[in-house]
Structure formats: C-alpha cells, structure tokens
Amino acid sequence: MSQNQSLDLPQLGRVDTLAQELALLQDKGKRRIAFLGSRHVPVVTIHLVELIARSLAQEGHSLVTSGSQGVNAAVIRATLEVDPSLLTVLLPQSLNRQPPEICVLLDQVLHLVEKPDSDDLSLPMASSLCNQEIINRCDQLICFAFHDSETLLSSCHSAEDMGKVVSLLFFD
C-alpha cells in the first residue's frame, strides 16, 4: 500500500456502489425490488425476509420474486398481506411443475408469469434463466444465500454487472 492511500477509504470501484446505495436510501421514489433466495432457510430468516418485504410493500415498492419455498414464499406471503398488486412472481417453469404446497400460495398472486417453454430444462437451468429475467425487471436485488449457492451467487454477479444495487446476505 502506498503512503497516499488511507485504510478507511473504500476501493475506487466500491465508491460508486456505495454512493448508489446511499442515493437509493434517500430516494423517496418507488422502486422495483427483486428478492431471490434459497428454498432451505432457517425459520428466523423467514421472519426477517417477511419483515423486509412487508416494509418495502408498505412503502409502495413493487416486489418481484420467483415461486418456490423459503425466501420466495416469505416474500409472497408478506406482500399479499399488504397489497397483492405490488407483487410479480416469475416461475422458472409452468405452474403445474411447482410443488402443491406452493401452488396454494401462487393461486393468490395477481401477476404470475409462467415459463412452460422451460419445462424440458433442468430446474437449475430454468431457475438461472428465471433469475436473469427477474433481475432484468428490477432496480435493486436483495438476495439471501449460502456461500455455495452457485445459481444465486451467479445471479448476484450478473445483477452487479448490469449496474443494479445488490444486497447479498449469507445464511452461513
């Protein structure tokens, strides 16, 4: 490290991201916020995800997520409680490929997008394509993942490459 660099200053590339995140915190405009996350989530985290999603929906932000158990189901439940019109759910495949327990919840979603063309793909491949479409539709991404969640981490990197503000929280 040269003598001119301070230990307190973030890297140059990080300064832009930090400025962008601070601007979003002060911005009173409505945003499209995507949530992605693992299907297998600790119960405490489910409550945290529901709290965040509910708060964002109460502020009038539009939320976008996918339709599986865990993080996605928590976002769906919380947003449906506040205002179902603020929620869009993109499925990686068609509705009939989803587990029955999530279909009960998905039946309440007003803006549900199915991808029957992806029914022949593996679930990880279909999920990756779905995540990319979710990212394309959002201004900001909030992701809950494990350090070995390859599909989710790849989606976060893709969102960062597109200039989206990404908040990545790890379970482990």
What secondary-structure arrangement, pairings included, does this model have?
Elements: H1 12-26, E1 32-37, H2 43-58, E2 62-66, H3 71-82, E3 87-90, H4 100-106, E4 111-113, H5 123-136, E5 140-145, H6 150-161, E6 165-170
Parallel strand pairs: 1-2, 1-5, 2-3, 3-4, 5-6
Helix pairs in contact: 2-3, 5-6
Describe the structure.
With 172 residues, this protein is of the alpha/beta class. The chain has a single domain (33-170), classed as Rossmann fold (3-Layer(aba) Sandwich), CATH 3.40.50. Helix content is 44%, strand content 17%. It has six helices and six strands. The chain has helices at residues 12-26, 43-58, 71-82, 100-106, 123-136, 150-161, and strands at 32-37, 62-66, 87-90, 111-113, 140-145, 165-170. The chain has a six-stranded parallel beta sheet with strand order 4-3-2-1-5-6, with helices on both faces. Helix 2 links the parallel strand 1 (32-37) and strand 2 (62-66). Helix 2 (43-58) runs parallel beside helix 3 and helix 5 (123-136) runs parallel beside helix 6 (150-161). The longest helix has 16 residues, at 43-58. The two termini are 31 Å apart.
Structural class: alpha/beta
Please list the strands of the largest sheet in the order they lie side by side. Answer: 4-3-2-1-5-6
What's the level 1 CATH class?
Alpha Beta
Mean pLDDT across residues: 87
What's the architecture in CATH terms?
A: 3-Layer(aba) Sandwich
Low-confidence stretches: 1-7
Q: What is the total number of structural domains?
A: 1
Radius of gyration: 17 Å
The largest β sheet comes out as:
6 strands, parallel
Distance between the termini: 31 Å
Q: Please, how many helices?
A: 6
Number of DSSP E strands? 6
- SSE order, one letter for each helix or strand: HEHEHEHEHEHE
- What is the helical fraction, as a range of percent? 40-55%
Proportion of residues in extended strands: 15-25%
